[in-house]
Specification:
alpha/beta; Rossmann fold; eight-stranded mixed β-sheet; 10 strands; elongated
Length: 419
Amino acid sequence: MALHPVVEEEDSGKLCRARHTGRRIALALIALLLLCTSGVDARSPRTDPTTGRVRVIYIGDCMGVQNPFPILDKEPSLYCTAVYACTFHQTPDQIRKSMRAYMPRTYDRFLRNDVVILSDANRQAFTPAQLSWMKRGVVEEGHGLVMIGGAESFYAGGGSWSWKPTQVAEVLPCIIMENDWIRPKERARVILELQRGYITVADPQDEFIRSLPFEEIRGYPLYQGPNKKIPFLMWWDIGEGRTMAMSRDWTPSAGSTFMRWDYYPDYCINMMLFLAGIRLPEDVEKVHLIRRKMREAGEAVETLYSMGAMVERIGGNTEALDRMIIDIQQDRKEALNLYVQARTDEALKAFDEILSKCDEALREAVRARNQAAFWIFFTEWCVVTGTFMFTGGLLWLLMVKRRLFREVGHTRLADISLR
């Protein structure tokens, strides 16, 4: 009888240990399941192995209309290539030349890109091989791909060829309907919706949604739309890559109001990073401020170069200005590296110092311009004054010499004529 409690205690200990082991196994399985189903964390980033930049090829309406390509092209974490393929904004001859010059001709060259943008791109501009490359690049190589709404996107309501029967449609997170709406596929994540022109957040916990203050655009309509809710932005991970679908345009053709959103540049940049599998910055406002100061610094440097060229043309001395510009460009390069390395605090401080140096350089440029202009005006004043004094003196001399001659009644010629 005395042995029973001991046996019961051992059995209960084994039972407890078995329960704990079972719980640990269950938690491990859940964690593994979450890791496998989470596209954001499980997917490895797709970047240039040499520079670490995301290589973007923008195909479609990247000329002839205001578009986000200049924003993406100036972003230091991206390397962008433009390919004309929109018949509404480019001529057929321009499209053929651009496709021949900038669209990769082999699959190996196509793989040197990380993200493909199809923004109002005409399907007929592509060969069947190029359409298959886009699908293979996503599924097998981890490419990112996004299709932006437009008259030549999705079902191509502008009279162009629909993308529905292509291999590109197979990897998009949406079903292309026989009208101007699209429907999300079963596993796609709809993160933004549109109703009566108002954009609403459908998935507040999504990483892309958390990277921008979308609550700021809820209060006023950005697009024209029906009463029913339609998907505005959706994505999914398919194979090794990631694709997105934006049902409306991001150019003035339909998105002119959307483009006036303060965070529109961040929207376009973050989308490229997200498609490449790069974790988006958490401090939204700080990154937004850095990017704004980055653009201001770039515009300031361009202004300094223009003013330096003008001063040189009028014969001014630009040695001090040139030294200041070289110093600013060096600091700017270091600040861009800090930004790419996600050292936001240091990058913000560096860009503040750069803008301060730009103000000093601008004052130096104005001083050099005023000095050169002073000598131009002084030289012109000397020439004009000297000419005036010479001609005035000559006239005065002639008027004084006139007193040396006396008046006569007739000239000798007149006397001869009278004889």
